[in-house]
């Protein structure tokens, strides 16, 4: 018998390590509540994870198996679980963050010491780190070059789920609650997790919205993106299955525009892999700027401004809508993530790590590589980042991508009665006008024009200018 250690792969289908183990012998699936991992987790993510585990356990039970649950240091509890069942060893899928790699080395050492075999598989990405490199064998630091090679490489087909008769006959343990794990209920309404939800979402997306993706994906009110991020993060859908669905969509595409839209969606999957590779080869970017300037960037530490940003009370409607969506749903649309991140790091000149920490606490889909990549992109410190002199104007961004202010009015009820014009020119209204349109909504806390100049000067100094 082999144990399969589930981590960020909370699914039975299209799971490489699980499929390989089931090809060899009976499999006992295990999940470990690892205190080191929980220390970096937050209520919305743990709520999603527990929901996914409940469904995974149901899946195994319906087929005569079960999911063993344990809590503690995986290096101890996995050895105990394997020895208790007289298992030969443990298979698992790789996780590419620095923290996970260090833990996995420790677990591998403990298994070696106990005389248990172990094997790790590439599963989370279509192309594992080290497989898409420059001609000199170096990791790419420019996305477009990476993406070109990534696209041209052959993709693996999805793996089948194990048959019921490959599952070890065991009874699992009760699933802990959030409180058992030491977490409060999340403030956000966390979306449902699980393999079925993920599959339905993927199918619905590939049935229609994917064909408008290139044109509409930047409009937060449209909802035409896949909303798969939390599922890809937790592995309730496999990446090969996701890609295969895009191949079917490509076959059904009836025009060049539709084919380009499918390709544009794949381009975002490539961003996900690009950032995972960046993190793998440079795990310290979690806390360090990827790109060094000659001098330190003179980040400002204004608690009041940061608080207004977190609370969605900056007086910039699209920024506030994004920050409230984060609080309410544990999710923010990508265009809006870019806007709020630019606002924090350029208009408020707050260190990107402040924003990253807040997102890590609040996002259900928080993924170290993508979150870090997104923040360092916006802060102009990342690999292939937004150039420091191209600073988003939140007023024009709001007007362009939410022209009817539908998104703003959905998340900022104080502005529900305001017209799109009033919302997009909120900074130009005089105090009496603002008072009569939306008395409870704040005036802008800073002047974008002035803050833009300050950010440019700050980055110029960081580059070595005066
Ligand atoms: P879709 O547009 O449908 O894209 C499909 C999938 O591609 C996503 O689910 C995601 O896995 C991947 N993807 C899409 N855009 C990106 C991108 N720019 N970078 C990397 N992968 C991408 N994404 C996360 O998954 N977790 C994060 O913690 C995260 N933090 C971010 C922080 C900032 C400041 C920014 C600017 C972006 C961040 N992103 C993050 C990327 C992106 O915003 C989300 O992946 C996307 O909004 C999720 O919605 P979706 O599933 O509908 O995306």
How is the topology of this model organized?
Blueprint: E1 2-6, H1 16-24, E2 27-33, H2 35-38, H3 43-62, E3 68-71, H4 74-84, E4 89-93, H5 98-113, E5 117-121, H6 143-152, H7 195-207, H8 213-216, H9 229-234, H10 239-252, H11 256-281, H12 303-311, H13 317-329, H14 334-347, H15 352-362, H16 368-378, H17 394-401, H18 406-411, H19 420-424, H20 431-437, H21 448-462
Parallel strand pairs: 1-2, 1-4, 2-3, 4-5
Helix pairs in contact: 4-5, 6-11, 7-10, 10-11, 11-16, 13-14, 15-16
The structure holds flavin-adenine dinucleotide (FAD).
Keywords:
466 residues; mainly alpha; Rossmann fold; Serine Threonine Protein Phosphatase 5, Tetratricopeptide repeat; DNA Cyclobutane Dipyrimidine Photolyase, subunit A, domain 3; 3 domains; five-stranded parallel sheet; 21 helices; binds flavin-adenine dinucleotide
């Amino acid at each position: 018998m082999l144990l399969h250690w589930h981590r960020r792969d909370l699914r039975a289908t299209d799971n490489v390590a699980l499929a390989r183990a089931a090809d060899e012998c009976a499999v006992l699936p295990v999940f470990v509540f690892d205190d080191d991992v929980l220390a970096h987790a937050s209520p919305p993510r743990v709520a999603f994870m527990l929901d996914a585990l409940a469904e995974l356990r149901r899946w195994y039970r319906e087929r005569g198996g079960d999911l063993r649950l344990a809590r503690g240091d995986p290096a101890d509890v996995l050895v105990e679980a394997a020895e208790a069942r007289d298992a030969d060893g443990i298979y698992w899928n790789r996780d590419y963050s620095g923290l996970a790699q260090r833990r996995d080395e420790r677990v591998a050492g403990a298994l070696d010491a106990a005389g248990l075999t172990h094997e790790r598989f590439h599963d989370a990405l279509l192309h594992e780190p080290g497989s898409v490199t420059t001609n000199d064998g170096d990791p790419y630091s420019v996305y477009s070059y990476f993406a070109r090679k990534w696209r041209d490489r052959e993709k693996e087909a999805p793996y089948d789920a194990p048959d019921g008769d490959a599952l070890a006959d065991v009874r699992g343990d009760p699933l802990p609650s959030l409180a058992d794990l030491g977490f409060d209920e999340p403030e956000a309404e966390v979306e449902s997790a699980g393999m079925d939800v993920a599959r339905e979402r993927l199918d619905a997306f590939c049935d229609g919205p994917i064909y408008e993706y290139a044109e509409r994906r930047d409009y937060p009110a449209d909802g035409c993106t896949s909303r798969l991020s939390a599922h890809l993060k937790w592995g309730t859908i496999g990446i090969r299955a996701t890609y295969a669905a895009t191949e079917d969509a490509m076959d059904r595409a009836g025009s060049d525009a539709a084919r380009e839209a499918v390709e544009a969606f794949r381009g975002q999957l490539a961003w996900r892999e690009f950032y995972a590779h960046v993190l793998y080869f440079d795990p310290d970017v979690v806390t360090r700027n990827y790109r060094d300037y000659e001098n330190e960037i003179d980040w400002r530490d204004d608690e009041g401004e940061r608080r207004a940003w977190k609370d969605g009370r900056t007086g910039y409607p699209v920024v506030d809508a994004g920050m409230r969506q984060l609080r309410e749903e544990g999710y923010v649309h990508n265009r809006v993530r870019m806007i709020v991140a630019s606002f924090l790091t350029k208009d408020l000149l707050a260190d990107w790590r402040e924003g990253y920490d807040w997102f890590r606490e609040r996002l259900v889909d928080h993924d170290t590589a993508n979150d870090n990549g997104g923040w360092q992109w916006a802060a102009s410190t990342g690999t292939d980042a937004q150039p420091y002199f191209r600073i988003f104007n939140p007023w024009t961004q709001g007007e362009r991508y939410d022209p009817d202010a539908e998104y703003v009015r959905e998340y900022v009820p104080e502005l529900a009665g305001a017209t799109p014009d009033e919302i997009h020119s909120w900074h130009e209204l005089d105090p009496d006008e603002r008072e009569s349109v939306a008395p409870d909504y704040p005036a802008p806390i800073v002047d974008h024009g002035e803050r833009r100049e300050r950010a440019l000067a700050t980055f110029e100094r960081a580059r070595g200018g005066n």
